[in-house]
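Model the whole thing, not chain by chain.
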Amino acid sequence: MTSLAMIEAAAERIKGHARKTPLLSSPFLDDIAGRRLLVKPECLQHTGSFKFRGGWAALSAMDEETRKRGVLAFSSGNHAQGVAAAAKAHGAPAVIIMPADAPQLKIDNTRALGAEVVLYDRVGGESREELGNHYATTRGLTLVKPYDEPEVIAGQGTVGLEIAEQATAEGVTSGDVLVCCGGGGLTSGVALALEAHAPGLRVRPAEPQGFDDVTRSLQSGQIESNASTSGSICDAILTPAPGDITFPILSRLCGPGIVITEDEALHAMALAFLRLKIVVEPGGAAALAAALFHGDQIEGDAVIAVATGGNVDPAMFIRALEQHA
Amino acid sequence: MTSLAMIEAAAERIKGHARKTPLLSSPFLDDIAGRRLLVKPECLQHTGSFKFRGGWAALSAMDEETRKRGVLAFSSGNHAQGVAAAAKAHGAPAVIIMPADAPQLKIDNTRALGAEVVLYDRVGGESREELGNHYATTRGLTLVKPYDEPEVIAGQGTVGLEIAEQATAEGVTSGDVLVCCGGGGLTSGVALALEAHAPGLRVRPAEPQGFDDVTRSLQSGQIESNASTSGSICDAILTPAPGDITFPILSRLCGPGIVITEDEALHAMALAFLRLKIVVEPGGAAALAAALFHGDQIEGDAVIAVATGGNVDPAMFIRALEQHA
């Protein structure tokens, strides 16, 4: 179980390695959102997403011998790049299991960051967990899970420590913090950090239509699954269900989820281009889309949205601009 | 004449108003540049460019009565938005004279920021200075020049104070700092700040082919003009010649200019999209293009490039992605 102390320790180890991303804003976006909107652009993090934080936290927490044998990760792409970069910086070998339908950019980048990439058939239902266990056993690698892993949650929680400090400096001490949510690693880590450091800020998951497992799980009070784990442009956050470790945290600390459409994600990407000058991928734009287009589900004078990643193929980005800019 | 003390005073007045932009980097860009490359993304500044700093510095330095009468600015767009936003925040009226061929996005934004926009015919040779003087005289407005203005240079110089601090923190204490250069306000301000705070860092202007007035002026030792002030996609930095105030500073402190092509600017925009997740406009990509594609003119293990602005129309951005991403 991830504790506040683990998040704070991860923040110490990450210092000077992860970027402290700023809080961005635009009067034009405030107008659309109907309230003050602050955006935490984790797309500007190393490897283009917050996942670098969790990767670094996990690698830096290992003993030297374990780390030298190497690590293994499975991911739709952003966790892959985060672990690959963190492993390279720590001198550790990395094997990354990726879905064959992940954006080519993410596959190429993971390889270029020095990792060995193994593709699996997500659509056909191949189990990435079984494949991962095979590699872990035969090569002595340590599995770094994408979200249901205490040190990874601790690393992602450093986003929450920064939000607490930066929002307070902006005079925002109450309101919703919207987080693009897959398995809930970032969402739960941020929630734990804010519980201690900015208790007036409440985390709420943002998810795409058809992949709203966390939103439904929070409603029912038990872990609910998605019918499918592919078929949305929001590829970064298509996980089967909240994790056994993340769900109790989400359940205790988070407000209701907000569900957005793919079109709203593309629209949010175009507005982030126009008004914030940042590149956000569809899955990374879910929280911003929720803040911009679902203001009726939000209360308070201010809202914070985490733009979780920017690893989008040019064709998809052009689609967002052509349809909405 | 702008002094270091003026830059430091401007930094105090701007604190909490301008964003402190981070230094970004990517191992993929280091590979292309052939050395370590740090990018200062001023496209993430309020209004999408560094010009907000100069506008804020000028407005905040005025006495209350002068400020209340209002300000006037002429600009291809970024200075316009910077002054408009700073004026609005100070409760001062603003009249902005803009070329009729400026990107529509910049014209629209300047109006939306509360300024009165007056368009003039840049291609036909209409003098924006005469038009500006007319408005200044008839309405009692104070002209805030885009670059040849001591307080504006001081405001832009705050970019240099941040670079000095951030580069030192990254272990970079010597090398070239490439700055996209129009009239030289940012370039001279950064040079003054670095002279005092990071004397091992040398500023060099980056300019587009055909609009290399500063590069030629530095070579000849006297102010040289461009044959034209329009006809490049790098609209943000198409000024007729270095200024009477900026040129002596540039001449004393800057290294040789680097001239880039329009195609290189588009390529740099695409790489900034792919690797840094930031939106850069053509004129704002000149320094990055120089770092990436003119490494043979650069010495040292590290280079810093300022990405000065991100106010680009979607069609131009799509062109960059289609041609180079």
